[in-house]
Each structure stands twice: as structure tokens, then as C-alpha cells.
Specification:
single chain, mainly alpha, two-stranded antiparallel ribbon, 12 helices, 68% helix
Length: 366
Amino acid sequence: MIAAIVAFCVGVLFCLLLVRPAITVLKRLGWSQYVRADGPQTHLVKKGTPTKGGLVFGLGTVVAYGTAHLVTGEPVTVSALLVLLSMAGMGAVGFVDDYLKTHHQNSGGLPERAKILGQLLVIGALVPVVLWGSERAGRPLLSSHITFVGDVGWLDLARFGPVVAVVLALVWYAFLTVGTTNGVNIADGLDGLLTGCAIASLSAYALILFFQARNSCAGVLTAGCFETVDAHDLAVVTCALLGNLAGYLWWSCYPAQIFMGDTGSLGLGGFLVALAILSRTELLLPVIGVVYVMVASSVLLQRYYFRLTGGKRLFKMAPLHHHFELKGWSETTVTVRFWLISALGAVAAVAVFYATWLLRTGTGTL
């Protein structure tokens, strides 16, 4: 617990103190936001705001996590390393996208297929780390099942043999990762919107991971114990990012002085999906990230409705937060209401997690 507190506090201070000088540096580099002309007209004033702020809280997460381990003397774990690598890898894809936008001063960036290919390459690069980490831990970091609150018995990917299991696992993790990272990315459309939603999501995961650490199967095998490897250290690295985002929100809330860019949003998506996979709560992620599901679904619905109806629109504009802006809601109203939805999703996920655990241990009833 001390490590988590240190990580959180260092993270808050890091962003509170260093985002201001980072804004100056980003402006000098010319890394400023390009605003779409076909978007809400109220966003045109945002043009010129420095972007790639994800570099700050990404670095801050590593610093906060490392400081916590220096203070406590606890060893760095492969599980936490995987989460950080997932964040860095997806953030690197986002950085390339951001660089192309700022360099050419248009909203093009990476083509959609190139962005997805980059995400898939990151997944492939992390596979050897997972295998090495499993050998070092003496037990698999990942489950052969698709997970909810632990393994879902009838969703065993290994039932058709090891070769098919590997193929199915790669397909599943690719789907989960690409869907999550792009959903989180799409949610980054208003000042502070994604930052506040991510704080809610990470808070839920911090609670879940601390509970898993207290009821780990690594100690005494009991009914309802959790197979999550290094759950406590996953909670520590989660608190490191949580603290950074709390400090970062000071600068990114309306009117934002800095944007995280795809560097930050894809990095956050990589972090969250890694937490879901390693904590074995994959099917719980859509509840924790309900806002990401909402905004990503709105884009897909808009796209296919437009094609099927020959040009009609289901929403005034997609993603969903822009639809409400065009309906007359102020930017802060949309942001705060989406924060509330995200917080409700986080609370609901923790409640479902705990209720499921009670049922599995036989201490609760339907």
C-alpha cells in the first residue's frame, strides 16, 4: 500500500509541476493541434493548442512507478512492465499519427489501416515478453480462457488443442486491444473528457487489483481466490498513472492548455486493455469503459447507417459527444455528464466484481 501511495503522490506532483514547462517546449517545437473545419465551430478557437501531452503523463507514470519501488525496495514485476510496454507501444503509434498531423497541419495523420497495423505489431512484439514473464513467474500471466471475474469456464480457448488455442488467443487479444485503444482514442474529443473518464476507469481497476492481491491464489488456495500474477504491483502502476492524470487534469480541463493527442489516448487504451487482460477481467472492461463503448459505437452506427440509407445521418455528428454539442449542450456540460456516466460504469463494474466473488465463495446468494 505504501508503494501505491508514493506512486500516486509522485504522479500528481510530476504533472502539476512539469506540464507548464512542457507546454512551452511543445509550442516551440510547433506541435500544435489542428482543428477540423467540419467539426463544431466552437472548437476553432482550440487551434494552436499544444498537443502530444501524453508524453508528459506517460513519462510521469514511469517516474512515479520507479520512485515507489526505490522508496519501498520492492522488486519491479513483469506484469507491471507489460502494462508500461503496452502503454508505450500504443503511445508510439499515436505519436506517429500526431506527428503527421502537426507536420502537415491537417487531420489526416496515419491512415486507419496503418494505425491498426501498428497496433497489431505492438501486440506481436509483446508476445515474447509475456512468454518470458510466464516462465519467470512460474505460472502463466494470461489465462487460456476468456475472462470476466476470473475464467469463464465454457469460454476455454484451449479445448480444441494448443495450436488452435494460440490462434484463437491472438485473435481475441487483437480484437480486444484494437477495439479498446481506438474506443479510448475516439473519446478524446473535448477538453478533459478522456482524462476524467480514464481517472474513473483506473480507480475501478485499482480497487479490483488491491482486492485481488488480498485474495491471491499465490498464498493459500481458497474458494474464490484470484490467479492474477503480481496483482499488488499492477495496482501500484495503476496508481502511478492515476496520480499523473489527476495532475494533468489541472491543465487539460476546459479551457485546455494542452491536449494529450493520440500519443496519450492510444497509450491510455494500451494501458487499460493490458490491465484487463492481466487482471483477468476482460469482459468486465466494457462496463468499466462504458463511455469508450458508447462513443466508438456511435461512430460505427453513423458510418453504416449513412451507407445503408444513402447519405442519411443517425446523429448530428459522430462521435456522440459532438452530437450533443450540436444539439446545444455546452462543452463543459457534455464533459461532466460523460464523466458521471464513466463513474457510474466504474462503480457498477466494482459492484459486479464483488458480487460475483461473493457468489463464487458461497458467501452470497442470488
